[in-house]
Amino acid sequence: MPPQQFSTQAKTWRLFIDEILISASGGNLIDGTDFPALIGNGITFVGSSVPDLDSSINTAQDLSQISAMIQLIGTQFRVNPPTIPMPKTIKLVTDGYNCPQPTTRKDSMHACCKKDPKFKATLRKTKFFPRQKGDLTISYDVNQVYENNYMVEVTMENNHLLGRLDHWNLTWEWTRGEFIYSMKGAFTCVIEYSDCIYGAAGQYYKDMDFSKVVNCQKNPIVSDLPPEKANDTEIGKIPHCCKNGTILPIHMDPSKSKSVFQMQVFKVPPDLNKTAIYPPEKWKIMGILNPDYKSGAPIRVDPA
């Protein structure tokens, strides 16, 4: 805080300073917190580009598939040079692993985690996790896949007993240069395609008419359509769409507890195959006079 000048007063001011994480590449905070983030009480990271780590045998020791690197930039207070700031501990919290106390040297820390022989894994029908529960769940379901684009349905379901959403705005962050070519059941607040023309998309899709593209922003903002667009053959005709952004609690009215829209998403190199699909990250949903929702990191789940 700067020194007080003249007769300026700071009544009942409070100042709390602790460790601050400015950025982290290669991983996301599990609770979806934005940077800069206060992490004085510890924080858990999840994988972004590499959410799962395979075995050395299955990958012929391909380091890109068996390892993950998270590069951190942050600020730690109350540490005077030449002391090097280090975390109190580091461990793997994935089910089925035990981690000893880490070994710390002057400027490094490591822990060798081992599989827990007593852990009994829950048998799953697929390799994905079951659908998660929350006050408000957001599903990103890919239902048609092509070489360079795919069709996806986004569903928001309100499971809260009392909380409702009015005039919702939904946003996320593309991580691989994707862009929205078309959309039904909702609209983007800005129709913008300059990022495509001057970016990787423009270099690859040289013959595409980008004036027909809905949105090329890295962080698009999507809103619901009004009810009069529900039967519009071009932008409507989607079940559970077009409610002017209102999502009621499921116990109040099940027919109005869900909101759905569809998108056609185009990809850019090197993700030009049917299996290279990366969901957006850093989801946020906001409304007017509604509860504040905090979204966790997305995880792959069983198909609906």
UniProtKB/TrEMBL annotation:
Chain segments annotated as coiled-coil in the UniProt record: none
Keywords in alphabetical order: Glycoprotein, Signal
Gene Ontology BP, a term: cellulose microfibril organization
GO annotations of cellular component type: membrane
Signal is among the record's keywords: yes
Organism of derivation: Glycine soja (Wild soybean)
Domain of life: Eukaryota
Keyword Signal: yes
Protein name according to UniProt: COBRA-like protein 10
Family according to the record: Belongs to the COBRA family.
